[in-house]
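Why should sequence recovery work at all? Because a backbone constrains its sequence more than one might expect. Tight turns favour small or flexible residues, buried strands favour hydrophobic ones, and helices have their own preferences. The token representation captures these environments compactly. In the example below, the structure is given first.
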């Protein structure tokens, strides 16, 4: 392993990239605490060219250090600088693991095998990202940690926020030899349940806090999106993206499709120009040719020269740009799938294994 990592580092230096600057890493001491009787910490993984840091509180991705076109490093994910800062946010979706069911379930209820389950309402009348005790509020148990990976586990008890079954999940973060940040979930249950696990990291390829992402060029391999109501609940219909602001198949500058908000007061609902959206919060139905992990999207910043590919093995990609300073590209099953038989199945039964892999790969 060490020989392989050395080879990657040497190759990168030959291409003009130095190794990850250690003085840019987040301060580990600020992530040490005892929460719910468990120790939290900050774990660093890397291959000498790129590195990531994650904490076992919520599985938050705190840092993803990558070089730009000139070899200068920056943290390209939105983050906080201490464990206390992460604790202060009830629904602080800035880089956490999402589960037991990412995104929304309408009216916070679903029926499985003739039994109706009522869930926690935390998004109006709906449930968003699993309620009040989702993965983002869980202190995970760290199983192993080495130079390139950290493995965590948690058990979400039967009845948590209304979901049935004891769900046992293993979460692996790893840095791949081709400079990807890989997120892999493996989950099992002892009772029929529904599962949709994801991650809610925000990316700005110019560097976190460095302006907005309106100059970023986004490409998505998707012919359709799931039509949704104003509160993000799918209607069950699929919409063709052709001729709409949701057509990113050829790669488009986000700012050419998303309207400017300058001059508008908070709470004011502006008139949206034809051919544009106020912001993106949509599930794109990404195309796959196999059941394996395939490239489904690409994000590029002309300013920094950074390009990031999104690879996954799930049918959905939630694109969220509400913050404008960063973009979330959430690999997932479709929102509200338990209430739509026509959507890809999210039911997990005893004896079955749920797996989900998403890789954010930086091209150098």
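From this structural description, the recovered sequence reads:
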């Amino acid at each position: 392993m060490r020989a392989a990592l050395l080879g990657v580092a040497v190759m990168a230096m030959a291409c003009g990239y130095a190794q990850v600057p250690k003085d840019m890493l987040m301060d580990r001491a600020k992530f040490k605490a005892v929460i719910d009787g468990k120790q939290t910490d900050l774990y660093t993984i890397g291959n000498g060219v790129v590195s990531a840091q994650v904490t076992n509180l919520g599985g938050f991705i705190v840092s993803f250090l990558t070089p730009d076109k000139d070899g200068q490093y920056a943290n390209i994910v939105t983050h906080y600088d201490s464990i206390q800062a992460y604790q202060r946010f009830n629904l602080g979706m800035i880089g956490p693991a999402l589960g037991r069911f990412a995104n929304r379930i309408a009216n916070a209820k679903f029926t499985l095998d003739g039994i109706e389950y009522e869930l926690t309402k935390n998004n109006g009348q709906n449930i968003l990202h699993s309620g009040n005790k989702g993965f983002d509020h869980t202190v995970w148990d760290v199983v192993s940690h080495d130079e390139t990976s950290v493995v965590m586990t948690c058990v979400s008890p039967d009845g948590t926020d209304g979901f049935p079954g004891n769900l046992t999940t293993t979460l692996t973060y790893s840095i791949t030899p081709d400079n990807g940040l890989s997120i892999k979930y493996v989950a099992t249950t002892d009772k029929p349940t529904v599962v949709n696990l994801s991650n809610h990291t925000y990316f700005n390829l110019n560097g976190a806090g460095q302006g907005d992402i309106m100059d970023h060029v986004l490409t998505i391999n998707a012919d359709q999106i799931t039509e949704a109501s104003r509160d993000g609940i799918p209607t069950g219909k699929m919409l063709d993206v052709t001729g709409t602001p949701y057509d990113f198949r050829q790669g488009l500058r986000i700012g050419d499709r998303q309207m400017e908000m300058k001059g508008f007061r908070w709470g004011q609902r502006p008139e949206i120009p034809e051919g544009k959206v106020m912001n993106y919060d949509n599930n794109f139905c990404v195309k796959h040719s196999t059941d394996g992990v395939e490239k489904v999207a690409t994000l590029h910043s002309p300013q920094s020269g950074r390009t990031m590919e999104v690879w996954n093995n799930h049918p959905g990609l939630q694109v969220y740009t509400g913050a404008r300073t960063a973009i979330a590209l959430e690999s997932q099953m479709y929102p509200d799938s338990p209430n739509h038989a026509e959507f890809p199945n999210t039911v997990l039964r005893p004896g079955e294994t749920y797996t989900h892999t998403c890789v954010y790969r930086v091209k150098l």
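A few observations help interpret the result. The first strand starts at residue 33 and ends at 35.
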